[in-house]
Amino acid sequence: MTPLSSGYELRSVVHLVRPTGARAQNLEELRAGIVDAPDRSLFFHARHHQLRHPASEEPVHDDFSAWVNGVVQDRETAERISFAVQNRAESPESLRGALLDALLQVPESERLSRGTQPESEFVFLLAESVPLPTGVTAAIARELVHGLIAADASVWFFHLIEQPWFPEGPLLGDWLIARGEERLAAWLIVGAASGQPIEVMRRRLLRRWRQGRISRRVSEAAGASAEVRREAGRSTVARLVRRIHKPEPPA
Q: Rounded distance, CA 61 to CA 46, Å?
């Protein structure tokens, strides 16, 4: 039995954060630090904010662009860095190159002059990952979706954001694709890569799954007898009425 044909175990994660020893007081030192930064340091500063702020209604800035914008006060460079993180953070190699490209658009003399005081310097950190079992193993896609909806933010972060960077075992997207759920796999992967807050993704997954179930029930009823179709229609209307009286929180 191959891993993709077996059940999928949902895992949580905790992170042990420590400094790498590298620091930056200006954009040139930030560039040099990114060149030498371990992959897990790049990951921490580019993606960990999604776990630190899972319930934010708006995407939160990565650490690099937040420091350049708020401390160095170089909004243009910060926007380039933010764009690089949002569009090139699928792997350590891709992200490192995009960050360096963004910083190299600033002339070296300006990179050296755009800095701050020692007390406001950028401290490079990295996070060692410690996966933890949740006790939930899904045999089919429906069970996986129900598990994700009930899981805490660290489960989402580990499977959708961290594990694709540091592949270990079957990836969630590959497992779903092996079960014919290509569209759901793509939706989850794209949502995670876009930097959407985790709680926003959870609400949208719940709504998407509910809508999909209603569509399947209506489709199945179309080939049934008139009485079965009427009952399916009454059931659908009743659910919609309940949702009107108790609307879902906005995404």
A: 9
